[in-house]
Structures are given as C-alpha cells and as structure tokens.
Amino acid sequence: MTQKAPPLSVPLAVSLAVPPSALTSFVLYRWANPATTSDYPFLAVAEDRSAVLSLGNYGVGFDWGIPDEAAAWLAHDFAPTGERLVLDLATVQYLLDTTFVGGTEFGLMTFDRRLTPNGLQLSLAAQSAAGEGPEYLIQGYGSYQRFYREEELVGPVVLGERAMLDVCVSTFAELAAQCARNVTEPPPPRYRPSGPRKPVN
Asked: Could you tell me which residues come within 8 angstroms of residue 3 by beta carbon, excluding any fewer than 6 positions away?
C-alpha cells in the first residue's frame, strides 16, 4: 500500500486540554423482529436521547441524537434487555467536534478477534457526499494511519487527529471489553446468509 502525504486541508489541530469526563448512561435493546432491517443486533439509547450506539458483528457505531431509522427499529423491531451501559461519549464528541469543522454525524469503530480496535470510519457534517468521511487504520494505541479508500493509499495523521484517536480507541476498547458478548454477536437473521463480517486479525 502506497504512502500518501497529508493534504493541505487537514483537520484543525485540537487542544490537548479536554473537559472533565461526563459519563452517559445507555439503555440496551436487542432485536426481537427477525425481519428487522437493522444490521446490528443491539442498539443502546442514551437516557438523555443525545446518542444511540449500534453494537455487534465486531463493531460499535455511534450516532448523535436518534436517527429516524433507529427510532423506527426501536419502536417496531427491538426490545429492552434490562441492561445498561455507561460510556464517556461526551469527551469523544468534544474531540471530534474540535478536530473537524462542523463536527461529525456518526462513526464506526471496528475490532479484530481479540476485540482490539483496528479501524475508525467517520461521517462529517460538512462532507458533500456519503463515503467522503475520514477513515483510519489502527495498529495499536498510538499507532494510526489515515486511509484514503478511493486511491488505496495511506498517510500519516496530524496531532489533532492523534489526540482524537487516542480517546476513541481507549473509550471503545474499554466498552468492547465490558460488552464482549454484545460486540461479537452476529447480525440479525436477514443479514446472516453471507455470514457475519470477519474481523481482521
């Protein structure tokens, strides 16, 4: 894979000073309707409705607010499990909003078989088309590369990105360790014929 120099229009550098952590409590739901069009087996809704997490198939997605599609799944296809998750998502959002002009709309952290984070995909509020958001390859805590999918190139990350990635990796690695059963569960039945997404070693 070819190395690529960082573009001139890199994300804004972020101050390393972040606000005190604010834990958010989430109510966990699991699919109950086999015909659901959700490709994640679990959804977790923040008690203050500020975010929703999608868990399963070796991934954790996060959306700010409750998207209409997720609201429909929760109303018709999912049922509460009686479990709760606690996550410092406020610091993650702060760093994402400070790193990227206009902030982000959603993101996806993926994991390998050991539940170690190996990739992060983001959708920016300011991007003009789907699929244009930044992607990162994660070799370990503190070891990151920017991935340019269309060109199949990789390049270095800047300081602001590194600070943001450190927090994302530590936050979601801790969540995956605490919720291993949820993060590794295959997708709902309609997405199983081709098998679950195989994590990269």
From this structure: 153, 154, 155
